[in-house]
Amino acid sequence: MFHSHAFAINTADPVPPGCARYAVEIKKPLGMYLAEDKNGNIFVEELLPEGAAEKSGLISVGDRLIAVSAIVFNSTMDYGGVAVKKGEEQIRFATRGEKFDTVMAAISTWPAPRKMKLEFQRCDDENGA
């Protein structure tokens, strides 16, 4: 059975009038295509039928991606000439001002078996899109 959790977003970035923010936790594959608009915003271009995004019941085409869960490593150890990344840290990676490829790279750091947190903004009109 599929479960997702939505929760309020607490961010210093003000929500534009006519817009709302939400977060969802789903597992990879995410089941959606993301794209970049002319302003550099990343948004949901398509939901795949029966995919995790569609099954969440929360994500809609046109929703803007605000932030994603990502993994960074804060140290490297050398074992016989082999560098091994250590100190895994889960972070909130904000998408504003980031290149599309950078956001996709951040998404790719998240391990598939774990639920990934994605934060979105949905607007009634073009004000915050």
Low-confidence sequence ranges: 1-10
Biggest β-sheet description? 5 strands, antiparallel
Our estimate of the beta-strand percent is over 45%
The helix content is: 10-25%
Oligomeric state of the chains present here = single chain
Number of strands: 7
CATH topology-level fold name: Pdz3 Domain
CATH class: Mainly Beta
Please give the order of strands in the largest beta sheet.
Answer: 1-2-7-5-6
User: What are the secondary-structure elements, in order, as H or E?
Assistant: EEEEHEEHE
Structural class comes to mainly beta
The appropriate CATH architecture is Roll
- Counted up, domains total 1
Rg of Cα set: 16 Å
Q: Cα distance, first to last residue?
A: 33 Å
Taking all residues together, what is the mean pLDDT?
87
The CATH homologous superfamily is named PDZ domain
Helix tally equals: 2
Shape: globular
Describe this structure in words.
With 129 residues, the protein is mainly β. The protein has a single domain (6-123), classed as Roll (Pdz3 Domain). It is built from two helices and seven strands. It has a five-stranded antiparallel sheet. The protein has a two-stranded antiparallel ribbon with strand order 3-4. The chain starts with 5 loop residues before the first strand and ends in a 6-residue tail after the last strand. This is PDZ domain-containing protein.
